[in-house]
Amino acid sequence: MYFRIVAYYLISLLMSVSLCYADGQNLDLDQTSSEPPPTLQFSNVEFRITGTSNVTDWDIVSDTMGGIIRFGSAFTHPEENSGNPGAWIEEVFLYIPNHSLDSGNPIMNQTMNNSLESESYPNLEYRMSDVEDMSAGSSSDELSFIVNGVLGAAGAEYELTHEVFVHQISEKTFRIFGDFEMNMTDLDIEPPTFMRGALKTTDAVEVNYNLTVTLED
Asked: What domains sit in the chain, N to C, each tagged with a CATH number?
């Protein structure tokens, strides 16, 4: 029962973001057979890319995300598929506009957008391939999902497997978070340099996402 509740709110969260994006893009979601999700309030939303250089560490942050989700049979018939986490979601597509990424430094932002080829590829994208596993988290009110997916940036793609956590803060409030490591060259992006090469960024970066969602009455 607890798994069903947490999975429902996780799916509802993604669907809320999807509906906002669909309205702006005139997308047809009539094929989705699920009921409208409950109203959700978002807070403490953060997407962060962290790296380092030969001079200093750096952070790039965004608080903007959109996407599409298609539900699996477990959403409409949980009694038939409750033991299979992969049956809850058929497809997840999320995107972050490159222009929403901010390092706090205009020169670095411009260099970053050049490296991401933002004029031709305006978004960072993520598409889920499948949900591999589900298990209890570090506490009795936390679940973790092992998810396979594909990242896209600057016309290149990178397959990864990472862990997503859902932590229940109260009856109607949840925190969703996770992180993973990768290299910029995994997406065929050369680590940028600044000040005519005096500052050189390293290839490895860490990606973190963390948000709180509350179900409103």
From this structure: 2-215 (2.40.128.110)
